[in-house]
């Protein structure tokens, strides 16, 4: 989107707003962060998250995985109705969580039911533009967080959702 906006501005003979920083500045800043106490704290957080054996998801499949990797496949797209989306938002507000956290909680439960596993890791992309100065900088800032959660069937859904909320907030803090 940033590139398209800049191209449109140039096409319309408009000057581009000079940026405070560019991607190179970000990479230098990021390199400096590796020496900070905050980075060390985040590293410790992630090491603790995965100190035990990392679970493999044993998802039942219709076909065996081929011996040679292939990228043949298809996509399935679905849209939520406005009514369904409003219900998700209302439930989220009631539980004091985001719709993402609600759907992630449901996803964990679904995976647990399919696999009979209670320790599941889900990868989720993070935008990686925490600093306001990065909002209009071209570059790849996306990172993937591995969210590890244990599903305890003795918990109520509300309690489970609160655990997911806290784990998400901790993971986002240490991204």
Give an account of the 3D structure:
It is a single chain. The chain is mostly helical and 175 residues long. 47% of the residues lie in helices and 9% in strands. It has six helices and two strands, in the order H-H-H-H-H-E-E-H. It has a two-stranded antiparallel sheet with strand order 1-2. The radius of gyration is 21 Å and the shape is globular. The chain starts with a helix and ends with a helix. The model has no long low-confidence stretch (mean pLDDT 91).
The helix-strand sequence is HHHHHEEH
Strand order of the largest sheet: 1-2
General shape: globular
Strand content: 5-15%
Q: With helices defined by DSSP (H or I, 4 residues minimum), what is the helix count?
A: 6
Averaged pLDDT: 91
Approximate helicity band:
40-55%
Cα distance spanning the termini: 24 Å
For the largest beta-sheet, the strand count, sense and barrel status come to: 2 strands, antiparallel
The value of Rg in angstroms is: 21 Å
Write the layout of secondary structure elements.
Blueprint: H1 2-11, H2 23-33, H3 37-49, H4 82-95, H5 99-115, E1 119-126, E2 143-150, H6 157-173
Antiparallel strand pairs: 1-2
Helix pairs in contact: 4-5, 5-6
């Amino acid at each position: 989107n940033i590139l398209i906006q800049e191209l449109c501005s140039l096409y319309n003979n408009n000057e581009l707003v000079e940026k405070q920083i560019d991607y190179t500045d970000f990479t230098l800043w990021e390199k400096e962060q590796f020496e900070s106490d905050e980075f060390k704290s985040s590293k410790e957080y992630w090491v603790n998250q995965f100190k035990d054996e990392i679970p493999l998801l044993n998802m039942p499949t219709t076909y065996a995985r081929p011996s040679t990797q292939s990228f043949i496949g298809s996509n399935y797209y679905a849209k939520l109705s406005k009514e369904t989306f409003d219900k998700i938002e209302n439930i989220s507000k009631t539980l004091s969580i985001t719709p993402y956290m609600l759907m992630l909680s449901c996803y964990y439960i679904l995976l647990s039911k399919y696999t009979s596993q209670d320790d599941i890791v889900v990868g989720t992309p993070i935008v990686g533009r925490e600093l306001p100065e990065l909002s209009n900088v071209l570059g790849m800032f996306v990172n993937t967080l591995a969210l590890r959660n244990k599903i305890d069937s003795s918990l109520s859904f509300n309690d489970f959702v609160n655990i997911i909320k806290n784990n998400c907030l901790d993971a986002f803090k240490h991204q």
